[in-house]
Amino acid sequence: MFGLQASSAAASWVVGRMGTDAHLYDDPEDASIPALLDSRFDADRIDALKRLLALIAQGVDVAHLFPQVVKNVAAQSLEVKKLVYLYLLHYAEKRQNEALLSINIFQKDLSDINPLVRAWALRTMAGIRLHVVAPLVLVAVKKCARDPSAYVRKCAAYALCKLFDLLPEESTTLEEIVDVLFSDNSPGVVGAAAVAFKSVCPNCLALISKHFRRLCETLPDIEEWYQITLIEILLRYVIARHGLVKDSVMFASNLSLVAQGGVTVDTMSYTQPTSVGGISGTRPNIMLLRHYIEEHPGCFDREDDKFSSPSVTTSTNDDVAILLKCTSPLLWSQNSGVVLAAASVHWIMAPVEEVKRIVGPILFTLRSSPDAAYVVLGDILVFAKTAPLLFAPYDEDFFICSSDPYQTRALKLEILTTIASESSIPAIFEEFEDYIKDPNRRFVADTVAAIALCAQKLPSISSTCLEGLLSLVFYESSITNSVHLDGEDIVLVQAILSIKAIVKIDAASHEKVIIRLVRRLDKIKQPAARSLIIWIFGEYSSVGNLIPKIIPPVLKYLAWSFAAEVLETKLQILNASAKVIIHSAEEHLEEFKRIMAYITDLAACDLNYDVRDRARFISNLLPCGKTSLNENDSTCQSHSQDIRKELADHIFGGKIPTTSHSDSNYRIYLPGSLSQVVLHAAPGYAPLPKPQSMELIYHTIKLTRDTANSSESNNSNAESESSYESGSVYDSESEGGGLSDKDATGSSQYPNDDGHNLHHRQDNQEAPLVHMYDDNVDQGQTGRNVEDNLSSLISTDLTELMSKSALESWLDEAPALPAVQESMQKSIARVSFTNRSFERKPKLHTLLDPSNTSGLSVIYAFSAEISPISRLLVCIDLFVENNTTDQLTDIIIKSEEASISKDEMDQTSEGSASIPTLAPVEEIRSLAPQQTVKMILQVHFHHHLLPLKLSVLCNGKRHPAKLHPDIAYFVRPLPMDLNAFLCKENQLRGVFEYARR
Amino acid sequence: MLQCVFLLSDSGEVMVEKQMTAHRVDRAICGWFWEYVLAHAAGDPSKVVVSPTHYLFQVYRHGVTFLACTQVEMPPLMAIEFLSRVADVLTDYLGDLNEDIIKDNFVIVYQILDEMMDNGFPLTTEPNILKEMIAQPNIVSKMLNVVTGKSSAIGNKLPDATASFVHWRTTVVKDASNEAYVSIVEELDACVNREGVLVKCEACGDIVVNSSLPGVPELTLSFANPTIINDVRFHPCVRFRPWESSQILSFVPPDGQFKLMSYRVKKLKTTPIYVKPQLSSDLGNCRVNVMVGIRNDPGKPIDSITVQFQLPPLIASADLTANHGTVDILADQTCLWTIGHIPKDKAPSLSGNLRLEEGLAHLHVFPTFQVKFRIMGVALSGLQIDRLEVKNTPSAPYKGFRAQTQAGRYEVRS
User: Looking at the record, which segments are called Disordered (chain A) (predicted)?
Assistant: First the structure.
């Protein structure tokens, strides 16, 4: 019967395996793979490729067959192709040269009529990551981004991410493709574009602004994975653009507003600043805010109030409202990642009274996706610490069930203690009582610790807690005495620790508890538990009325048992008796001193160094009877006694500094991030952008867009106008033109937007926000108005007198301009300044790459400052960084050609003007590891675009380098008064012509 | 961005290794992980583990550990949800999930992984589309493979759905039988504390739809009493607006069986059955007595009742008998009492004696009893489907409804 069953089971197993690839996995090398690969039949080749795959799966290196496999890439059969691709992707990086062989086939496949073939070719071509073919891939991606098949476009977006690793210098081109993909009308492609955005240009939030509304609206239609990514991007955009919401949790001072209807609010228990959790008033929220945005400490420095004024917005802001509206249905998503991402948007941006809508969905994910529970609970813990009342009504969701793993249990316990309030504590306590009987002893110990935390938070229940804990101590001690099992005593020790923590708050009123605990001493055998009780006894020996009465018998008992104790208990006995001596009243002092002397005598003969040491120390500090060596010099004696007393008081009577809960150094990261789970900043973690940091860029885009829209013929106008704006325009509208020439003509526009990509964090000087707009409407009366407005708006240094020489510095050798006549027509361009601050980020160029120079990295950026030596010199900021672990010494930067001498500086002689020259710079004596030094280089470029040849000497080695000039910085600002400006402006043909008509 | 996905067997062997990005992960990390599991977590590892070199995410299903590695910040839930999606898709494809099945079908596993993730980010995860791209192994294809020696699991055409707005539905559903079945599957979570008080009782339900409809049908499902629902979550096909405004589910279904919606009804008053455990111990003996009976008759038969508990540690021997059903003590010190139906004439009870280890007079830890049962034909939360409308189909389809409740996390502490 059984045999029959067994054979039928075996038969079904055989049938189950029949036709699968089982035999290939079991024995991949039982056939000659190279021979099969060269076979003419697809079936053989598939067989061989499957064997190779099996070997890869088992961790065998089969890279040596690369050439034979690669040639199969040309096969017609899709299955062969797919298997070859799998192999290629696995090994291409190891075998770069052979992988090149496949490129032609990919190129051919890219124009196949089957979109699947195109998509695969693109995925594989980008996936094999060969630097040599990266430009080819870029071309392919550009083409595929406009492919008729949405799937291919989606793959193009993925290929962008891969390309970015290979071609970081092409980031502008890649951004343009991201932009194209964002405008796609298939939700799948838009979602994939979000992924590409995240890896190509995560800080280029200005790109989002023109798509923002549409992205929000497509949010529900795109796939869940993309939703997670896109929600995060949109949140960052809104914060960078509009700032935080004023009435959100981030700024709420009193979170009692968050409380749900039926719950009686007991704000007192949360606003006690002394309570353990530190959950008080406004502090944690500002702290939360700091943790989320910490990257820019400048804006939070001294006063938090100051911060709240400039960079907040309200939830009625259109963009904020639409983001909240479009993310709220996502709280019903079946993917817990989406729920958490949507919830964190609401947590950060929604008004306080609406935050509670996230609670239900988040808690539901605990049940509906159990795998996610651990991560979600970690985030709930942060939410609950900030706004305990939000979760207070849901305590039963955090009740622990027997199937929860240990980590989940620990988190749930912590949340329960955080949200416990006067009204919910009875139910929570009943639960805790049940948990104490749980078979998992570590969890029981945690529960006991949680009880103490609750009691510290809600003093009204402390006596109930103590009763429970005492009976637990008695019960546990009886068990652990009879059975010795690993981890059994942690509960007992933790229970005593908890008692100690509760007693500490108000020792006098709990003295009976202390007495009962001490009386139990002879029943408790655990050394750790014993020492704890002895410590409690010593610490509170002078507290209350009853404890002093029990001191003599206890002390005698301790002296009697001293010899049998273990090390830590012996030390505690010594300490405790010293404390008793210090605090005891006169009448018993002699008796105690005798006991003390007995104990120190015993201890002085102990086997352990530490005990002997401690005994000697204490007997010197507190002379107990027999120390009277020489009575004659009594003054000296009394003096030293005073010092001893002082010392002893300090050592034994000193209050222990209240060990603040880990809250102070508790780091909080953005909800839903990996960093929040692992509690350290994972590589690549980026806090939220600084609120309203992209204000300027947004305005100017709007401006350029408006003007560009007005008519075709105005294009030149719009451009010139935008280039007036201190080079801050992000040129997002120029899809075709912006690509081609970024070196010469567009350079005034680029520094800023490239600076954004590099995400280089520097403090830049603040500049006023310039807002320029046309004022065609009331042309008639502008004349006077403009002058009034401007003279009142423009700061005084702009209206300083204009000198001829200053004018000449536009182009230094330019001949004096002919005198200008007063024009009848006035300008109608209007400039307004607001007090908005913004950062200008300079474009950074690399002078020396650390990989070539054994760790010395030099980056330069052109600065707009005027050289103190001569106006003809262009200032360049140089950032010298040491990337090695060693000290670098004697870094000298000098020109390959001779540098200019002082007297030559102002001359513009034709002879030496052909090559750029460098003003002498001081050397850097030494550079510590990871240190960055900024220095200023002053170069006379003589208005040529020739690079300056430099040699950098470091540690005695010479590194050649070339510094390429940026033509935009040859131009100098020219101060002039309004009238002069207006008449000069009239001479500029073609710029303002259209307005004059 | 996930750098690598590994599939580990129950013994820690690497069955499948799929590198996702250029930053290759050496499979030595699996060895580290396995040692970590054995050393620290006692088979209960956290879902996110920090190794010296990588952050690891893991999901465990039926003896297979799905392990993913990354070195950079990414939403951890994305990784965990992705791994569980991989597990679901593989289960769906291969019928079941275990070590042997993964090894036998490793080529399909590779192809699915490659399609589901590209460059460390999920690409195509919709099972319907995947099935068109990579054929599901079935008896016919296996036989064909055996007879002809040829097979092609790869679809040679791009599924149309990749381009469509309803990305979960294949555009051309062939041989549809024009039927739609809606079933409510509820799980009852309850917790009874040591005093016998019902601490928590709630029902978590799924609405599972099995649709086999031609064309692009429009379905509308409404409930008689939607207000009792506390929490919801939906399949991507459900439109949010109709639910927001009038609690109606409006959707274009994917083909085949899928979970349309999950919901939770909290604060239920009673449970259909009671379980009353009593443990009393003295002098090294512990008497166990468990009674089971019907508390609140749901009107339909309750079957497949089982009561399970972990024997406390420090037990020398156990002697347990029941007056109805069978009692088994499993290898991991679990006592399983299979009751089945509750007979009309007597109340089932389990009684017996646990002999404690030498020197232990009293039991100090008490087990938690997990109760399982099943009731066909009833949704205990009381949720009722009002009606299902199907539009946009050539002929009126056949519609079917059913309901079922089973025990979820039903726990009785003793």
Answer: 706-760
- Shared domain for A469 and A552, answered yes or no, is no
> Could you report the per-residue pLDDT of A852-864, keeping only the tens digit for each?
777 788 888 887 7
CATH 2.40.50.180 fits B273-376, yes or no: no
More confident residue, B29 or A793: B29
**Does A199 sit within 8 Å of B70, measured CB to CB?**
no
Q: How confident is the model at residue A724 (pLDDT cuts 50, 70, 90)?
A: very low
Q: What is the ipTM of this complex?
A: 0.91
- The answer to whether the Cβ–Cβ distance between B233 and A368 falls below 8 Å is yes
Segments making up each domain of chain B, as ranges: 4-148, 179-268+380-413, 273-376
Q: Indicate yes or no: CB of B234 within 8 angstroms of CB of A367.
A: no
Q: Which residue has the higher pLDDT, A376 or A796?
A: A376
The first and second tokens of residue A520, run together, are 């139990």
CATH code (residue A869): 2.60.40.1150
Residues A541 and A491 in one domain: no
Q: What percent of chain A has pLDDT over 70?
A: 68
Provide the pLDDT for residue A712: 40
A446 lies in the same domain as A577: no
**Are A431 and B193 inside 8 Å of each other by CB?**
yes
The answer to whether A160 touches A174, Cβ cutoff 8 Å, is yes
Determine, yes or no, domain membership for A837.
Answer: no
Q: What is the CATH number of domain B4-148?
A: 3.30.450.60
Q: Report, as an integer, the average pLDDT of A649-653.
A: 70
Length of chain B (residues): 414
The separation between CA A144 and the C-alpha centre of its own chain, rounded to angstroms, equals 34
Tally of structural domains, chain A: 4
* CB neighbourhood size of A663 (10 A): 13
DSSP per-residue string spanning A974-987:
----HHHHHHHHHH
Residue A224 lies in a domain: yes
Q: What angle do CA B303, B304, B310 make, to 5 degrees?
A: 140
B315–chain A Cβ distance below 8 A for any pair: no
* A948 and A861 co-located in one domain: yes
Least CA distance to B7: which residue of chain A?
A57
B179-268+380-413 and B273-376 share one fold = yes
- Distance of alpha carbon A509 from the chain centroid: 47
Share of chain A above pLDDT 90, in %: 2
Average pLDDT over residues A477-482: 68
What's the domain range around A615? 530-625
Does B140 contact chain A (CB < 8 Å)? no
- Is A590 contained in some domain? yes
What is the CATH code for B179-268+380-413?
A: 2.60.40.1170
Residue B250: CB atoms within 10 Å: 19
Model pLDDT, residue B187: 92
Nearest neighbour of A158 by CB, restricted to B118, B364, B411: B118
CB contact under 8 A, B81 and A333: no
Angle between helical axes of A373-386 and A406-419 (0-180°, round to 10):
20
HSE-CB at A289 with a 13 A cutoff on CA atoms is 29
**B124 Cβ neighbours under 8 A, 6+ residues apart:** B115, B116, B130, B133, B162
Q: Hey, of B14, B21, B81, which one would you mutate to test binding to chain A, going by the most A CBs within 10 A of its CB?
A: B81
Token pair recorded at residue B78: 């994305």
Sequence-separated (6 or more) residues with CB below 8 Å from residue A489? A476, A480, A526, A528, A529
Q: Hey, is the C-beta of B28 within 8 angstroms of any chain A C-beta? A: no
| Domain termination residue (choose one: A605, A625, A645) | A625
For residue A946, is it within any domain?
yes
Q: Which amino acid is at B17?
A: E
> Are residues A451 and A502 part of one domain?
yes
Residue A763's Cβ-count burial label (10 Å; 0-12, 13-18, 19+) is: exposed
pLDDT digits (tens, 9 = 90+) for A183-237: 888 888 888 899 888 888 888 888 888 888 888 888 888 888 999 999 999 988 8
